[in-house]
Amino acid sequence: MWAFLATDAMGFGGLFVAYGFLRTRAASWPDPRLHLALLPAAALTLALLASAFTVGEAARAATGRGRTAWLVATLALAVTFAGGELAEYHRLWTGAAPVRLGDLYGATFFVITGYHLLHVLAGLIWLVAAVGRAERSALQVGALYWQFVDVAWMPIFTFLYLVPAR
Amino acid sequence: MTTASVEVVGLGRRPSRVALFVVLAALTAAEVALARWDGPARLQTTALCGLLLMKAGLLLAYSLRATPRRPGPRLALVALVTAVGFTVVLMLEGAYRAGVR
User: Around Cβ A117, how many Cβ atoms within 10 Å?
Assistant: First the structure.
């Protein structure tokens, strides 16, 4: 798992370097505040942060019932995040000034957030499989993966949503 | 409390872990406030990167249950922080070059 996380971190790192290169080289770059919903994204970030806590508590729980309860809470937060991301995609795709894969801004946004969303969906599958029957050691490995997904979201939120284009 | 149980507990008891996530939420709120501020862009970007590193560091310390006795987490932490560090430095350098072009 450690080797996988290290290589996956390099994958995200490569995407961020490409994003930084393309953004600084672009003749113009739209202000994220014009297209992206900042407060809903901040709420999704808080949901993801909370899920890192709940999955950590699941891995620490001494009883099977405690593990299940924390995993269900994590699952709810993960579904909230994934649903929020998909709603954001729908809003961007169908809004008054649609953001599409064809332009550089849209391509970088959808590729980076989509790559992260794939990780979230993989985590969701694991969470569904783990609820009610996870052993503690397996849970600790899964929790580590989920917390990595949370950490990976932090630079996405900062660089794609917050850093201004001026 | 034995050494093993200290390692399992990681950052401490649950209230301290809750406090950690309150701090993370506060840092997120500070990021949003900073993003809405119409100040100098370079200062804003640098401050946002600083907040990002603080959040990532806190989250990594929590998720890896960072203790100096565990070599696996220590090595992974080095790889992850190096990746983040390289990214931030390259982006800042790119922004600087774009600014002086």
Answer: 18
